[in-house]
């Protein structure tokens, strides 16, 4: 229900070269990077290649034939002026998956310009990107092209910090399927998605902040969706923060939801609406004493219009996608960090959650609520980061994951260990052990596949120059 935000390092911060080699029975990779100054700008280029071994069949078979190999390369360039900065980056990749003889390739290009306005007028950011991806698997071809532009303005006005802007995205996709009778109708389609948004962070007092925002998305495929949010934060003292939030999120319809057809049997989702969530959260973040910090969030999520695969008496076919499910999830998520000493740090995490979903009166779901997925009710982790000497690191990560009841995956506990030694300032040698407590264990299953992950050991060499 959140946003995954991946931030890559500025090219100014990655000058010089880096070579990273890793290898073991189940995984091999090589990565190289080089950064240099070009006038007042900085440029970084990189390349990488990897090979990952297959998982194991649950019935004891040696391999699930789902190994994965690939390569990727790209660049990033940054320029910072007195009032302006510019970033341009791009990537290209190719991968191959053994199980369906599938090959995937693609490329992307991004440009972002930031301008600092005079006085209190704030900052303007303009970003545009292009992304292309193609997957050619067993008797199928799936391709997509995305063009996206976004504009954002941030400024202060008295006690208010205001962010507003908008964006426009155009997507062209194509799906060819000669494996079975499922097709997208039409086979290829252009569709647009536009959005406008605004947020105001109000400094009510020196210790109390109120944030209100609204994002509106609209397109011919998805209709118009409104996503408001309100957040309140109270800085109780220098060591304690309390906060709460109410937000509305929407999963907009995809081409699969609307246009997937099996002639004579399945008629897609001509009446399918966006799935909706209202999230209620309350949180606590504190540093009770100097070396200990704690964060805890309680949540209650109210879902509506969740997708079902339903049998109908009227419509384009006897089976269609409808919005027949509703329900709730609730629980607690917490994290803590303790610096036992200058050499030892402990990190712990715990997630406890419950889910309650049911069909609406008169609704049916032929696939047994598979659209809900399957999440463990309990997850816990403990990580120890130990640096006995300046040139040695030892990190131990323990995790326990509860059972997945829908697909009969038992609960499991596992351990990962990484030991690294830096004989010089520019060389690091490492040894990583993953899933050390069991030869094999299952993490997920479906109705058609049951696979296990095994113990693995990877050695690494990292050289900076």
How do the helices and strands line up, and which of them pair or pack?
Layout: E1 16-23, E2 27-38, E3 41-52, E4 56-57, E5 68-80, E6 84-97, E7 102-116, E8 123-137, E9 140-157, E10 160-177, E11 183-184, E12 188-203, E13 208-219, E14 223-237, E15 240-251, H1 255-259, E16 260-261, E17 275-289, E18 292-311, E19 319-339, E20 344-359, E21 378-389, E22 392-401, E23 412-424, E24 427-434, E25 440-445, E26 450-454, E27 456-464
Antiparallel strand pairs: 1-2, 1-27, 2-3, 3-5, 4-26, 5-6, 6-7, 7-8, 8-9, 9-10, 10-12, 11-16, 12-13, 13-14, 14-15, 15-17, 17-18, 18-19, 19-20, 20-21, 21-22, 22-23, 23-24, 24-27, 25-26
The largest β sheet comes out as: 22 strands, antiparallel, barrel
- Quote the beta fraction: over 45%
Weakly predicted, low-confidence segments: none
Helicity, in percent? under 10%
| Helix and strand pattern | EEEEEEEEEEEEEEEHEEEEEEEEEEEE
What is the radius of gyration?
25 Å
**Helix-strand makeup class:** mainly beta
Instruction: Quote the average pLDDT.
Output: 94
Number of strands: 27
- Principal-axis shape equals globular
Termini separation:
41 Å
Quickly count the helices.
1
């Amino acid at each position: 229900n959140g946003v995954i935000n991946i931030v890559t390092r500025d090219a100014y911060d990655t000058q010089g070269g880096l070579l990273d080699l890793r290898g073991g029975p189940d995984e091999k990779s090589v990565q190289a990077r080089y950064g240099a100054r070009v006038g007042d700008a900085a440029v970084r280029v990189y390349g990488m290649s990897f090979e990952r071994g297959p998982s194991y069949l649950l019935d004891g078979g040696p391999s699930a034939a789902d190994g994965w190999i690939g390569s990727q390369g790209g660049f990033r360039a940054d320029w910072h002026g007195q009032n302006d900065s510019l970033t341009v980056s791009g990537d290209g990749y190719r991968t191959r998956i053994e199980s369906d003889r599938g090959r995937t390739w693609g490329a992307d290009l991004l440009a972002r310009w930031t301008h600092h306005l005079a006085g209190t007028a704030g900052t303007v950011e303009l970003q545009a990107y292009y992304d292309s991806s193609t997957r050619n698997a067993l008797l199928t071809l799936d391709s997509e092209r995305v063009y996206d532009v976004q504009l954002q303005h941030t400024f202060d006005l008295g006690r208010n910090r205001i962010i507003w802007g908008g964006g426009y995205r155009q997507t062209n996709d194509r799906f060819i399927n000669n494996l079975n009778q499922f097709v997208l109708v039409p086979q290829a389609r252009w569709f647009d998605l536009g959005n406008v948004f605004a947020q105001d962070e109000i400094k009510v007092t020196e210790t109390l902040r109120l944030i209100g925002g609204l994002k509106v998305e609209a397109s011919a495929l998805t209709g118009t969706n409104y996503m408001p949010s309100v957040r309140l934060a109270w800085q109780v003292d220098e060591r304690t923060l309390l906060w709460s939030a109410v937000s509305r999120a929407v999963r907009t319809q995809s081409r699969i939801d609307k246009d997937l057809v099996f002639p004579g049997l399945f008629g897609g989702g001509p009446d399918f609406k966006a799935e909706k969530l209202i999230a209620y959260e309350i949180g606590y973040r504190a540093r009770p004493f100097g070396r200990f910090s704690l964060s805890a969030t309680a949540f209650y999520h109210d879902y509506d219009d969740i997708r079902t695969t339903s049998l109908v008496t009227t419509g384009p076919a006897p089976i269609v996608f409808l919005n027949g499910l509703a329900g709730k999830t609730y629980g607690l998520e917490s994290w803590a960090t303790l610096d036992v000493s200058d050499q030892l740090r402990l990190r712990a995490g715990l997630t406890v959650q419950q889910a309650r979903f049911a069909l609406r009166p008169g609704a049916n779901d032929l696939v047994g609520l598979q659209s809900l997925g399957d999440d463990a009710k309990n997850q816990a982790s403990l990580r120890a980061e130990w640096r006995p000497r300046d040139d040695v690191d030892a990190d131990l990560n323990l995790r326990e994951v509860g059972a997945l009841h829908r697909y009969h995956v038992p609960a499991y506990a596992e351990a990962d260990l990484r030991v690294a030694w830096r004989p010089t300032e520019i060389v690091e040698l490492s040894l990583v052990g993953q899933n050390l407590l069991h030869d094999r264990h299952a993490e997920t299953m479906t109705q058609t596949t049951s696979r296990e992950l095994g113990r693995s050991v990877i050695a690494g060499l990292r050289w900076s120059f």
